[in-house]
Specification:
7 helices; Recoverin, domain 1; two-stranded antiparallel sheet; globular; mainly alpha; 3% strand
Length: 145
């Protein structure tokens, strides 16, 4: 998974900055598109229209959409085996988001730190859906590929 993220960053010209400089919105969306292009074919029951709906904040609750969301969140290193990876998410946020998004995302991540607690990942990827729904509710400028 870390290799996938590194390859995505290299493909869109994102380097891991020594400071918290972040990336441009164009680079952010390009990295997100690559993640989406990896995960969407793994879940053929999730149409492009449904994925676009998720991108726009309409988060359905079904096994296929939840597992698609889980795939993307795993690529972002935000979730692992159904557990929210708070520290890894904060680090990835610094790499994958423009500076203007970071303060609000830090607050959203803090608000959602317990959103996956007590949820079982198998067989329906429920923690991913819960996490993304929480983030959507707590971050005004919602971003998901």
């Amino acid at each position: 998974m870390k290799l996938d993220l590194l390859l995505i960053c290299l493909a869109v010209g994102i380097s891991v900055p020594a400071s918290d400089a972040g990336v441009t919105e164009e680079q952010m969306w390009a990295a997100g598109k690559l993640m989406r292009d990896v995960c969407l074919p793994k879940f053929p029951k999730v149409s492009v229209e449904v994925a676009d709906g998720i991108k726009n904040g309409k988060i359905p609750n079904s096994k296929d959409t939840n597992c698609y969301i889980n795939c993307v969140l795993e690529m972002m290193q935000a979730i692992k085996k159904g557990k929210f990876q708070v520290e890894a998410s904060l680090k990835q946020m610094d790499v994958l988001l423009p500076e203007s998004y970071k303060a609000e995302y830090r607050q959203g991540i803090a608000a959602c730190k317990d959103s996956t607690v007590g949820l079982k990942n198998a067989p329906n990827c429920d923690p991913a859906q819960a996490l993304l729904s929480c983030l959507k509710s707590n971050i005004k400028v919602f971003v998901f590929p």
